[in-house]
Design brief:
Shape: globular
Strand content: 15-25%
CATH architecture of one domain: 3-Layer(aba) Sandwich
Number of helices: 11
CATH class of one domain: Alpha Beta
Radius of gyration: 20 Å
Length: about 350
């Protein structure tokens, strides 16, 4: 059972507010690595191996690294007060197994005045609300699939549609029945998600290539090598080609072994167009430091953003790091770039307020 996105726990009250770092920082800046600790982990929330990878790569840099697993927001405040970091490396994709609470970690860090890697709480909150994110993208001139209100009349010409949880990531709630072809199957899928307390979003299903554009440095940063999800023709014969929960997390499933992430072979014009759309999407959503924008490109060459992830997987085998590796960047280099960006942001703010 999942907590609804608006049922957030209150932010902890701290008896002592940490003093912010003085600038310039100590020669070896102290980096506090925050990683999620799920008391009852599922395949998508068990990030112990990812935490070890992050800690190992950060320790190979020039930082004084301390690691604090986070099971609750109280753990965040306690670690900051006790360890006095110069910067926090925020790797929390969830709190206590709840991805809906993901924005609360940066929100608390913002209130404490502690610099951290990645996007702001506002950006994470916006991107977790798929309807709001789609509206923001559309206002910025970025093409998104048409969205329909749950329970609203849908014209027959709109099918097929895809039904997804509105406030989840990692393909939670997505299976072979998520693409629907009539009102009966639409109502059935919406009801199935509602039974798990997962509000649904209904959008047009775009048949075509699934391309991801990763950005290192936010909207104005570096465009990494594009990735593409390749689906096995036999395994997906007669069904929609979508990344289900099984295809991402259940290693013994047919879906998992029948999908691969590869370098996308794109014509220069298409790559340039997707990169421009990804930058515009990142700017509209407020992404910073890093992020990934996923597209579907239909047979006519039209590109639609189907997802934007400002806190994407930074594991060695994740799509972002695969994209970075294809342009010659290793794990340590990427993480060092993120820490340096957060430190530079904090130093610039300190100088502007001092002046």
């Amino acid at each position: 059972m999942h907590r609804r996105a608006h049922d957030h726990p209150p932010l902890p009250r701290l008896h002592e507010r940490p003093r912010g770092p003085s600038w310039p920082c100590r020669p070896e800046a102290r980096v506090l690595l925050l990683t999620p600790l799920d008391p009852a982990p599922r395949p998508d929330t068990d990030l112990a191996s990812v935490s070890r990878e992050l800690e190992s790569s950060l320790r190979r840099g020039r930082w004084d690294v301390v690691h604090a697993p986070v099971a609750s927001l109280d753990d965040v405040g306690a670690a900051v007060c006790e360890l006095r970091p110069d910067v926090v490396f925020n790797a929390c994709e969830a709190v206590g197994g709840r991805s809906s609470d993901e924005p609360l970690v940066p929100l608390l860090l913002e209130r404490l005045g502690v610099p951290f890697t990645g996007s702001s709480s506002r950006c994470l909150r916006l991107c977790l609300d798929k309807s709001a994110a789609s509206s923001a993208l559309a206002r910025a001139g970025v093409a998104v699939p048409p969205t329909y209100g749950v329970g609203a009349a849908v014209p027959a010409s709109a099918f097929p549609l895809i039904v997804k949880p509105e406030r989840e990531d990692g393909s939670v709630g997505i299976d072979a029945d998520s693409v629907v072809h009539d009102e009966i199957s639409l109502a059935r899928k919406v009801a199935a998600l509602a039974a798990d307390r997962l509000p649904a979003i209904v959008q047009g299903y775009v048949e075509g290539r699934e391309i991801s554009i990763s950005l290192l440095g936010g909207a104005n940063g570096r465009v990494l090598s594009p990735g593409e999800i390749v689906y096995d023709d036999r395994a997906f014969a007669g069904r929609a080609r979508i990344l289900t929960y099984a295809s991402k997390w259940l290693e013994t499933s047919v879906d998992y072994v029948s999908t691969r992430s590869v370098e996308a072979a794109l014509a220069p014009e298409l790559l340039q167009r997707l990169a421009a759309h990804a930058r515009r999407a990142a700017a509209a959503l407020g992404m910073r430091d890093y992020g990934r924008v996923d597209f579907r490109v239909d047979r006519a060459g039209r590109a639609f953003v189907i997802d934007a992830n400002p806190n994407c997987d930074l594991s060695l085998g994740g799509g972002f790091m695969l994209a970075a590796g294809r342009v010659g960047l290793d794990h340590e280099q990427v993480l060092t770039t993120l820490v340096a960006s957060a430190l530079a942001r904090a130093e610039a703010l300190a100088r502007s307020t001092a002046g």
